Amino acid sequence: MAGPLPEKCLDSIRPIMMEKTVSPNWTIVPKLMMVTIAFGFFVTISSPQPTFTGKVQDVSLNERSERCPQMLAKERVRRAIACTLAFITPDKTDNFLLPSMYSATDLEACLNNSVLAANLSELGNLAFNTQQLLVIKRKLGEIYPGGLPQEEIKKLGLIITVYTIEDISQWKIIDPDVVAAAIENSGTAEAINILKSHYLKGPGVLNATALNAIGGATLCTATEVRLKTIPPTEFRKAKPLDISTCTQARKDIIFGIAKVAFQDQAGDPNAYYNLTRPYVGGARAADLQRLAARRVNMDFETFKGLNPSEVEKLSALSVRELLGGNLKTLKENENQEIVQCWVNSHTMDEVMSLGIGLQGGILPAKLGIFSLKYLAKVSASTSVKSSSALLSTCVAVMGITMYYL
User: Fold this and answer.
1) Phi and psi of 393, rounded to 5°?
2) 143 near 169, Cβ under 8 Å?
3) Over the range 132-170, which residues count as b (16 or more CB within 10 Å of their CB) and which as e?
4) How many Cβ atoms from other residues are within 10 Å of residue 363's Cβ?
5) pLDDT digits (tens, 9 = 90+) for 283-339
6) Which stretches within 265-371 are classed as H helix?
7) What is the DSSP letter of 403?
8) Would you give the end-to-end CA distance of the chain in angstroms?
9) Global pTM?
10) Cα separations (Å) of 25 from 10, 15, 28?
11) What residues does 362 pair with on adjacent strands?
């Protein structure tokens, strides 16, 4: 506190104050104001001033503003937003009109985090626009700062569409129900592919739910070790999978699982074949021979997907029985790789024994004793209306015979 004023200062003020009291002469007001200001200044400089010898240790607002300026700014904005509508209560969260009643700003102010957390499934099914969904996403980030738990990801519904690829890449989903729900609700093919591939790389079980959600094309990208973890009982319950893009080794593994999964249907040839047909590209020659014995009438599209190395092992009789009524399609598709592989691994006799006009095959080992009987077979297998083709065949046979003589 300042001490008493010096007597000199008081003497200079008294005449003015007395004059103001006795006579209201307003011309002295400016003088009085100047004296008052001077008096205040004198009191201020006379007061003891605190000295700061160190850094201020107040960690309240100053420190928070230095450490988290954006957070403080957001807090101030949020405090400034007031809910001008009714707060959203649990009984309103399944109202399909809610998105039209509350703007993004209203959601920010009127949707409490506790209500959001307890009613996420209901809110995830509503048709909010992008801005509204972003508000909900931000609020979920507040509720789960360490990342969304699996069970909450399952409840997101349409909210998942505003999560970025970077966000989704951080999710560790091992529950097949969760990945199925996330794949179903994702808005982009890229997000779907990320979810599928990440699940395959993780420890999540490949049950029927997971297989249906992932699909055959993505399943073909799994490692062979991972494919072997598919339980046959779950494979049996899954929808048919398109494994046409799989490597041969993967096709072999999947067909092996399918055989076990549907072995109880082996007594019914048609039922067993129809169940295993999507995976028959991994069948061995012995498997194909068993199917041939049951005369399953395999169509050419399925035949084309068989393992060429295994098809080469089939006799002409097995091929005839395997395709049954579809045998003529071999001639119609004789330039296909699978047909050429079989033809080039069997003798001309076997090829011609199919009786469908298919040409080619391995030449007999000893043409030096070429018989007229063999020449008759070659001629008979050639179309009658194609005389030039017949002449060419005869010339070729005679040339080969002369070469070996």
Assistant:
1) -65, -45
2) no
3) bbebbbebbeeeeeeebeeebbbbbbbbbbbbeeeebee
4) 11
5) 999 999 999 999 999 999 999 999 999 999 999 999 999 999 999 999 999 999 999
6) 269-276, 285-293, 300-304, 308-311, 316-323, 329-332, 337-343, 348-353
7) H
8) 137
9) 0.70
10) 21, 13, 6
11) 347
